[in-house]
Structure formats: C-alpha cells, structure tokens
Amino acid sequence: MDDIAVIVHGVESPQAAEALYSTVHCAGRVMSRRQAKKAVDFRRVQDRLRAHCTVLRRAGADEAPEVYRKLEDVLAPHAPTIAVEHTLRPRIVVMARSDEVDP
Q1: Where in the sequence is the domain holding 28, given as residue range(s)?
Q2: How many angstroms separate the CA atoms of 6 and 84, rounded?
Q3: Is the Cβ–Cβ distance between 94 and 57 less than 8 Å?
Q4: Average pLDDT of the chain to the nearest whole number
Q5: Over the chain, what HEC string results?
Q6: pTM of the model
Q7: Would you call 23 exposed, middle or buried from its count of C-beta atoms within 10 A (0-12, 13-18, 19+)?
C-alpha cells in the first residue's frame, strides 16, 4: 500500500527460458498476519501514508507495508527475464472487508 507497483512484460532470454517464462506475481510477506497485528504500530503507518498523500480505507496492520518485501528487491533477480513498462505509486488503497467476496 506504500510501495510501488509495476506492469511488466517478459523478455526473450536464456534466463527466461530456464525459468519457463514465469516470474513473480507479488512481493511476498516477511511476517504472518498474526505477527503483524502484534508488531506493527498501525497508527504510525497511517500517519506516514497520509504524509505521502495516500488515501487508505479499511486496511489493518496485517497489510502494512512493513510486512512485505520491497518490490524492487524482489524484482532485481528477475531483471534478465522481464522489462518494466510502468512503475506506479498507489494514491488510494481500499481493502475489502472480511465479509466481502470478490466474485
């Protein structure tokens, strides 16, 4: 919610063929949801997001940026297999409530 998002496309390379033309689809968590709820000061996260002019709705500490790897660090090893077309910075983040289902 406070990290970049990217749009990528695969490139032809020996590394891409070796990886079966597959790549990552997210940054990945560094702590569980339960750990995050105990460890993250979510008020501080909300203050930081407001300072970055990011609007946040219905999220909790279990989705704080601190519980995910930095996307740039995750993408770096995949550089020979992808090309970044666009880098995006979220401005509005809306999380579904626990009782909402995406059809």
Answers
A1: 5-94
A2: 7
A3: yes
A4: 90
A5: CCCCEEEEEECCCHHHHHCCCCCCCCCCECCCHHHHHHHCCHHHHHHHHHHCCCEEECCCHHHCHHHECCHHHHHHHHHHHEEEEEEECCCEEECCCCCCCCC
A6: 0.75
A7: middle
Q: How confident is the model at residue 26 (pLDDT cuts 50, 70, 90)?
A: confident
Q: Is 101 among the domain residues?
A: no
Domain assignment present for residue 83? The answer is yes
The domain total for the chain is 1
Q: Is residue 52 included in any domain, yes or no? A: yes
- The position carrying tokens 């740039």 is 72
Look at residue 39 and tell me if it is in a domain: yes
Percent of the chain with pLDDT strictly greater than 70: 100
Fill in the amino acid letter for 100.
Answer: E
Dist. CA 16–CA 37, nearest whole Å: 38
